[in-house]
Specification:
Layout: H1 3-14, H2 23-31, E1 41-45, H3 50-63, E2 68-71, E3 83-85, E4 88-89, H4 92-111, H5 121-135, E5 140-144, E6 159-164, H6 172-175, H7 179-186, E7 196-198, H8 204-216, E8 220-222, E9 227-230, E10 234-239, E11 242-247, H9 256-272, H10 279-288, E12 296-299, E13 303-306, H11 312-323, E14 330-334, H12 342-349, E15 355-358, H13 369-375, E16 381-383, H14 387-398, E17 403-407, H15 410-421
Parallel strand pairs: 1-5, 1-6, 2-5, 6-7, 7-8, 13-17, 14-15, 14-17, 15-16
Antiparallel strand pairs: 2-3, 3-4, 9-10, 10-11, 12-13
């Protein structure tokens, strides 16, 4: 297949929906020679902050001299964003070649009656990433869990470390109702005797992680056991006999300190395992890490921020950030999927904005903005079906000295970011009021 054919193949797989269980993935990986066993892996799960933490880890390991594969999801503009080696997106030819290998093995397995159906979209992408990392001869791969943990495709890999960023209510239709069930699914990436690290706060979620770790014989290290102090130009992390003075991340938002701290704590554990991770790489990696679409400033006059806040905890983080913005005129452009608690999310954000545009993206799961508006009768709320028109109307309302925030769904963030790359949004784009 070429790139176009590969994208068509993925689109056809997406129509098949989600399938739980790992037997299908393990069979296809075995047919491919188990590419995920060709290099050590670190698996990163959790509710929010998985991508940022994975980016910090990959950046620190690259600064240490390792050749690093990074697998993340979802993408914003180009599906190839999910698979990179040393910061470089997988090339179009390599993407098509790796996906062709997956398709060949899948179709052969179905023809022989070894499998009942083709792979899912995420399964095919994960196996293609494993194959690309093997062909690229990476020294280590950082794998971000797509959904949950226990039954996620990435979990066929055997990690040298497991990380769970935090746990909150999200994807309950798939992971079960309540924090205890969700935490149990996240703990599915733990392994007997393999160190695990988490930034989960004290409470039901952390208690559940601890119970799962004890049952498996997994050494679990909560970040709360460390000491974290924020200074004027740097912050300090200390755990046991290890400590470091570190630069603030270039990723905006105070919550990124916690994500960076979790990555640093994991890298200290790699040092204990004999990995050559110099202290200087911790600072270099944190300073150079990038993660688009999360409190990302992409336009000025007015300021335009893109943030993938897609659940209540993500909206709380966004709210903390917005409170600190100096601009008096703040506009929100918001779209949300049908399976999200839209009311809770808007309840957190609406008080912080002078005007709100409800919109939609061309995704079947997207909530009808008109229906959402009925639940929040307010003169501050407008409905604009076209997301880019909503962004520009919000910019006119905010004026050159204001700010526009796009949030509620990573699909919306990706849509706007794609428009920006096509020239639909320039970095100086406001027209004033």
């Amino acid at each position: 297949m070429n790139l176009s054919e590969s994208l068509d193949y993925l689109e056809a797989l997406a129509a098949l929906g989600v399938r739980v269980g790992l037997d299908h993935t393990r069979h296809l990986a075995m047919r491919m020679g188990d590419p995920q066993r060709a290099y050590p892996c670190l698996i990163v799960g959790g509710t929010n902050g998985k991508g940022s933490t994975s980016s910090f880890l990959a950046s620190i390991l690259r600064a240490s001299g390792f050749r690093v594969g990074l697998y993340t999801s979802p993408h914003l503009v180009d599906v190839r964003e999910r698979v990179s080696v040393d910061g470089a997106l997988i090339a179009e030819e390599a993407f098509a070649s790796c996906l062709t290998r997956v398709r060949q093995e899948a179709e052969a397995s179905v023809d022989r009656g070894e499998l009942p159906a083709p792979p899912t979209y995420f399964e095919a992408l994960t196996l293609a990433a494993f194959e690309h990392f093997r062909r690229s001869r990476v020294d280590v791969a950082v794998l971000e869990v797509g959904l949950g943990g226990r039954l996620d495709c990435t979990n066929i890999a055997e990690p040298v470390l497991s990380l769970v960023t935090n746990i909150s209510l999200d994807h309950e239709d798939y992971l079960g109702q309540g924090l205890e069930n969700i935490a149990r699914e996240k703990a599915g990436i733990f392994r007997p005797g393999v160190p695990a690290f988490t930034a989960a706060a004290e409470g039901m979620a952390l208690d559940t992680l601890r119970r799962c770790a004890r049952t498996l014989g997994t050494p679990l290290h909560p970040l709360g056991e460390c000491r974290l102090a924020r200074g004027e130009g740097s912050w300090r992390l200390a755990c046991g006999n290890q400590s470091a003075e570190l630069p603030y991340p270039n990723l905006p938002g105070g919550h990124q300190i916690e994500n960076a701290a979790l990555a640093v704590r994991a890298c200290w554990a790699l040092m204990d395992l004999g990995w050559p991770v110099p202290v200087s790489a911790l600072s270099e990696g944190i300073a150079s890490a990038r993660w688009p679409g999360r409190l990302e400033l992409v336009g000025r006059e007015p300021g335009l921020y893109l943030d993938g806040a897609h659940n209540p905890d993500g909206c709380r983080v966004l709210a903390d950030f917005v409170i600190g913005l100096p601009e008096p005129n703040r506009a929100l452009v918001f779209a949300v999927m049908k399976d999200k608690p839209a009311g809770d999310m808007l309840g957190l954000l609406l008080p912080l904005f002078g005007a709100l545009w409800l919109t939609r993206v061309p995704v079947p799961r997207c909530m009808d903005p008109s229906e959402l508006a009925l639940a929040f009768p307010s003169p501050r709320i407008r409905v604009q079906e076209d997301p880019m028109r909503a962004v520009h109307e919000a910019a006119v309302w905010a004026g050159r000295d204001g700010v526009v925030v796009v949030a509620g769904s990573l699909y919306l963030v990706g849509f706007v970011k794609s428009a920006q790359e096509r020239g639909g949004v320039s970095r100086s784009w406001g027209s004033g009021r």
